[in-house]
Amino acid sequence: MSEKIKPxxxxxxxxxxxxxxxxxxxxxCPKCNRTVEAFSTEGLAQSWNKxxxxxxxxxxx
Length: 61
Ligand SMILES: [Zn+2]
What we know:
Elements: E1 17-20, E2 25-28, E3 35-38, H1 41-49
Antiparallel strand pairs: 1-2, 2-3
The structure holds zinc ion.
């Protein structure tokens, strides 16, 4: 049932810094500092595994 944590968008496959806050959890990549937050470990994994958002590219020339 549990979602498997994928490697970070930056390619980091090692340990991630998981933190328990009051009311929610967070997961941080020590390499690129990407952080996701969620209210459950399951939600945390899902948020983490979302594909990287694609910033607007300057291909429009
Ligand atoms: Zn990363």
